């Protein structure tokens, strides 16, 4: 990558961090007008479209990056995130496992991989990998909350409450952590009631929380 392209990538990344995603995309498109093989530009475009929840456009850009460089940890991680957002768990796991092979012990890659494994039916393995991710980044509120939601699904309310409370200690203004903590405490109380009430109330509410968690 030449110095001019590097400066443009830095500019695009700064725009992305400010939430100016379309401006970031335009900068990357400018790069591609000069160099159609710039992997970093495709990755940035994919990342920005992911933030905008335009998953089809994100997928297209990231597949192009992988076509140019199959062993890009970043492109595979981002594409795995796209497929996770679409609940396409098998595809998500495939790309996240490849990202993990390329870049070992990256807590964000492991967070997303653990989440996809859990929701893709490999619950025990998903929790183990999320716990590993948390060990690598113990103050990461995204990991704390993802792991808490998984434990909530497993009805391990004590562990879920502990994780959500830790997230709030780190980020007191984190509204999702607060909502999850309140919900976990509610479920813990409900779980002590008669079994027929548990099955009628707790299961659908946990399912509803899973849907709301990523809104």
Features:
Serine Threonine Protein Phosphatase 5, Tetratricopeptide repeat, 0% strand, 215 residues, 3 domains, mainly alpha
**Major β-sheet annotation:** none
Secondary-structure element string: HHHHHHHHHHHH
Straight-line N-to-C gap: 37 Å
Question: Helix- and strand-based class?
Answer: mainly alpha
> What percentage of residues falls in helices of 4 or more residues?
over 70%
Total number of strands: 0
Give a topology summary.
Layout: H1 3-17, H2 21-34, H3 39-51, H4 55-68, H5 73-85, H6 89-102, H7 107-119, H8 123-136, H9 141-153, H10 157-170, H11 175-191, H12 195-213
Describe, in short, the structure shown.
This protein is mainly α and 215 residues long.
Task: Describe the protein in words.
α11 packs antiparallel against α12. With 215 residues, the chain is mainly alpha-helical. The protein has helices spanning 3-17, 21-34, 39-51, 55-68, 73-85, 89-102, 107-119, 123-136, 141-153, 157-170, 175-191, 195-213. The chain contains 12 helices and no strands. The protein folds into 3 domains: 1-69, Tetratricopeptide repeat domain (Serine Threonine Protein Phosphatase 5, Tetratricopeptide repeat, Alpha Horseshoe), CATH 1.25.40.10; 76-137, Tetratricopeptide repeat domain (Serine Threonine Protein Phosphatase 5, Tetratricopeptide repeat); 138-215. The model has no long low-confidence stretch (mean pLDDT 90).
């Amino acid at each position: 990558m030449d110095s001019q392209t590097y400066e443009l990538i830095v500019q695009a990344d700064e725009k992305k961090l400010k939430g100016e995603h379309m401006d970031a995309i335009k900068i990357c498109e400018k790069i591609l007008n000069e160099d159609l093989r710039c992997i970093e530009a495709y990755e940035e475009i994919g990342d920005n479209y992911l933030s905008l929840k335009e998953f089809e456009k994100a997928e297209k850009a990231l597949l192009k990056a992988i076509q140019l460089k199959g062993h890009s940890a970043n492109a595979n991680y981002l594409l795995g995130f796209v497929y996770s957002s679409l609940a396409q768990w098998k595809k998500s796991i495939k790309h996240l496992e490849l990202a993990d092979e390329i870049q070992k012990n990256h807590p964000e890659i492991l967070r997303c991989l653990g989440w996809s494994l859990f929701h893709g039916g490999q619950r025990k393995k998903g929790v183990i990998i999320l716990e590993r991710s948390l060990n690598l980044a113990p103050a990461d509120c995204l990991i704390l909350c993802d792991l808490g939601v998984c434990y909530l699904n497993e009805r391990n309310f004590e562990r879920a409450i502990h994780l959500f409370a830790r997230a709030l200690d780190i980020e007191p203004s984190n509204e999702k952590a607060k909502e999850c903590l309140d919900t976990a405490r509610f479920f813990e109380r409900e779980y002590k009631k008669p079994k027929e009430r548990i099955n009628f109330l707790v299961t659908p509410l946990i399912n509803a929380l899973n849907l709301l968690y990523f809104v």
